[in-house]
Amino acid sequence: MSFESDLLVWLPQLRRYARALTGDPAWADDLVQDTLERALNKWRWRANSNLRAWLLTLLRHRFIDQLRARHEVAVDEEGAPWQNMAAPDGKVDGLELEDVQRALYRLPVEQREVLLLVALEELSYQEAAAVLKVPVGTVMSRLSRARERMRQLLDEGGDRAAAPSRPPLTVVKKWP
Amino acid sequence: MNDRQDSTCDSLEPGDDQRLLSALVDGELSAPERAVVEAQLAADPEAARRVAHYRAQKTALQALFPKPAAVPSLFLQRRTPWWRLGVSALACLLAGVALGLGLGTLSLGVDKPAFAQRADMAYAVYAPEFSHPVEVGADEQAQLVSWLSRRLNRPLAVPSLQEYGYTLIGGRLLPGEAGPAAQFMYQNKMGDRVTLYVTVFAKHELTFGTVQGDGRRTIYWASRGMGYALSGRGNEASLRMIAVDTCNALGGHADSWSG
Predict the structure, then answer these.
(1) Does the keyword Transcription apply (chain A) (predicted)?
(2) Which of A1, A26, A97 comes nearest B60 by C-beta?
């Protein structure tokens, strides 16, 4: 029972991470459930180590598999699952939560996941590197890119609000 | 072609500076690095704005995704097919957890299933019975189990509750909601009784919870197409322990026959 109760300690966080990652509560709940089932089946073969990191790793593997199966939900696509999320209200530290949400799902998945692991779940770089199976240096660069991208998107959002007539991003230059 | 210089280009590696600013926000810098970066911030308003923005992003993300308070609503909906291994274990685990967390009065699944109410009622009716508490006694346990298995059209297993001081005294067949149900009765040295109610329950969702009233308590769960309910009086903690163990014992059995 002790492994099981350890598992439960992390349930709320797993669930939060899955929701943030997918932007889709139903998908997230499926992911968490799959993850728990895997964990329950596999734990015997594991030595004592960082349970949370391991759970997040399992969850991420499932997510990536399912993403492939869904043919990569296109970033910012009209029918993307996160489009159904309730638009949050309010402003935090000068940022509109709704804009932050939109920007988050416009990040490429590998930037979104590292940003969520570190900024939301507050994993150390070391732990995030273990979950993502990349060197710590890569965590640092991806994270930094993710934050810069968020910054640009959020600034853009502000511009767009100010000048709604601006055309969308797909401008193709024609060369004479 | 000057676009190559554009700092918004995704493929540009972030400079060391930006990586350090980002690491500062996460508290991942050593003391000397930190001192250098903080000195830089004091001299460079652009860098200071970046750090403030990164911090704001972090706060906003945490506000966007608060930690869910309670677990239960998580398992309301369920797909069916390929998840098979470990599901019983999961149901037991969740039942144990919900009860352990004092969420006993909450139930998963949309409503409390009818079989739980029936189990509770059957306990109320038969547990106080002195002359005929069971139809078939435990001295004919093999016949009892094969008879009830035949009537429910499922291989039933009767868990031993000896560990808790309860001995099987027998069982009976009862009308259930969608067909027959079996009730197994156990008794301890003091004459206290608990019953295990078993019936077919085809809903493919994880279901568990408790029904209580009049000093009785029924803990129910569903696993692999069957609904189970353990009813008793008195000590809630011990009933809960028995239920979780029974659930595990029966889950193990179900694992072995469904391959």
Answers:
(1) yes
(2) A97
